[in-house]
Predict the 3D structure of the following.
Amino acid sequence: MIGRHPDSALLVEYASGSLELAPSIAITTHIQFCDQCRRTVESLQAVGGEMLEEAASVPVSDDLLDNVFAHIDSDSSQEQSLSRVQHEVGKVHSENEVLGELASTVPAYIRKFLPAEPLKWRFLSPSLKTATISVGEDVNELSFLKIKAGGKAPVHTHKGTEITVVLKGCFSDEEDLYQPGDFIVRQAGETHQPIAAQNEECICLSVLSAPIQLTGIKSMLNPFLSFAPS
Amino acid sequence: MNVRFKSSRKSAPMEEAQDWSACLERVGSHGDREAFSALFAHFAPLLKSFLAAGAGQNSENIEELVQETMVKVWRKAGNYNRSQSNANTWIYTIARNTRIDWIRKQIRQNPNQLHADDIYDSEATVTPHSSLIALRNKRDVSAEIKKLPPAQSEVLALMYFQGHSGQQVSEALNIPLGTVKSRVRLALKRLKIALAENELELEAQEEAHA
């Protein structure tokens, strides 16, 4: 039973297109598990459809329809196949090679965002490791997190907002127990210590947002997290 | 911004939507140009103002965006499924995604060529439930949306038309983010869009703080 869901304003941002890519990926991941939120998103898109229908009608140029047909006639068949080919050429490694130990865990949807090279895991603590996936956004960091069975993540404080979606296994913190599909939001300044369930490792998708816009200066330290000295 | 609700449309909206769905199906099944021209005549002028609202000062090229959206409508029409969504919802999602990609191109933030179509899961399987929802949506949403109190419809209009986030709405209207969120929740309640349980808890918390 999924107990944690995105709030309705976040779902409206998602359905209306103002939400950044990485958090949008987190929401699409959540609705792979959660039919309720999937239906809410469908309804919110229907609101968008009505909004469009209610928009003021502004005349377009006389030749716009001809331009559209010209465009359709010139390259309709080419472009679609081209993007598919480019996609395939970039993949030297198979999806399962890229995913490695995650191969059986990751929903099909997430596989679209995989890098061409195998995931690079780095340990944040003996029981917690992370692999970042780039979606080309400076303001967010999208990554997989893996906590060993029974493992404790270090106590940490977020500098920005953190969204976590559980993909496999369970973890708990001071507040609750979280299961696959749960969508957990932590605000800047909240401190917590996730602990994986004893019987199984826990794998999550995580989106960390930087507290401020980064301006190309790469800090040696992770700009998104600060760990308490232990 | 003002949402201008047209008063001229007194005819049954259901019938109209069915027509557009049929047009999309004709385009999808055999590239029917007459059906596409009819869709274009109706939707292109709507798309022009819809897309211009979200494009900010870069609105002079807006017809390029309209063109791109309508080309996608042509190409994707084969995937259209009337039991999943009505025509205006389907065209809306294409316009939204086109606008997202276009904005990201403007700010040059797309090194890995991810497209909005990749982010949103448009190939999701249609459950019998979701087709029921689609029908119910059509009936409820179009009737109820016009009856929303101005404070609520203003917030939704800023989010859908201008592409504002909750935070941006809060800044534009000079009201706290919490107020934006509670107006969203109230609007969705009125539109009979299901809220998750934790939303109801949030509302209770908010009331306690107020």
Notes: Chain B touches chain A through 86 residues (CB under 8 Å). Confidence is low (pLDDT under 50) at residues 1-18 of chain B. Residues 33-55 of chain B form the longest helix (23 residues). The two ends of chain B are 28 Å apart (CA to CA).
